[in-house]
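Check this:
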Amino acid sequence: MPEVTATPAREPDGRTDRIARRTLLGVVGAWTAGGLGVALLGLTGRGATAAAIPVPTHDPRLHAILTGAASPAATGTPRPATGAGHDQVHEAVTKAFPAKTQGQGLQALPSSIVNGARQFDLVCEQIKWEVTPGNVVDAYAYNGQVPGPIMRVTEGERVRVRVTNKLDDSTAVHWHGQRVKNEVDGVPFITQPPIKPGETYTYEFTARPFGSHMYHSHHNATAQVGGGMLGPLLVAPKDPGVDPRYDKDELFIFNDSLGGLTINGKGFPATAPYTAKLGQRIRFRFMNEGQLIHPAHLHGLTLEVFARDGYPLPQPFRCDTLNVAPGERWDAIVVADEPGVWAFHCHILGHAEGSAGMFGMVTALIVSA
């Protein structure tokens, strides 16, 4: 199975060959030594050391961004900065990327075969979650993660999920995109009683269809899903030949409630960059668990879209901006054929950049030799 992570080419003319090889060496070295902030300076030709770049948090506008005081709500924007102040704040925030925060979502969920079924354990709990440096919010989580851990199964496999509720509220789990029997669809008072605090409830179903799917709460869902109770359910096909070839498998999950506007549970500058080596093929699985549409835009490279909601398209198509509506899943291949640090963000600009610089739904794809 291809390598799975949550990561970044060749130039046809001599222009970038003369520049890119030299700068990429600096990018790779800087990335290893001091983070992407240093690497970005290397790409722009500006001097930097291998140490982490200090951030002048005495600037109240910058401090507000990095401590989360200016983190946007779903309809808000960071507090403004103008003129040279804008440049200073914008540069400092960009250099801080990727900023360190506590907590990481999308870890692999362990499983075991019990009585012929692949068995998982999910624990629902309320936690503190750091969205951007210093911006700690109350979250709903599966197994202490936002988004929840990755569940991996194979088409046709019997799946058993034991859900233990440690919340103060009742909950339930819906298997978004799966063709399950009605009694395990996860909708309280329609298919099951709610899972009350302290209870454990077991779901059992056959995994179908294959593709990129999700699991999430379907009880007080605006609060619970918006607050972090969501995760990827990835169903591998029995016949691997139905999927295009890829070298890396990446998740790109939008949410617009928990702590503002996030990709994989974090807001810029704390979002994690994607990385690939020159020539690699990366599979991106886009998912939207928010309440707003988010067009995913990748600079410099091309999305080769081949599946929607887990179903292969009759004809793949190419684009650089892919609209992802709430509940949708899209699968695309990106060929890392151009070196550099490529911005990757929601193209509703109020979700990504304002007068205080970039924030929210922004990350990067780093392509290195």
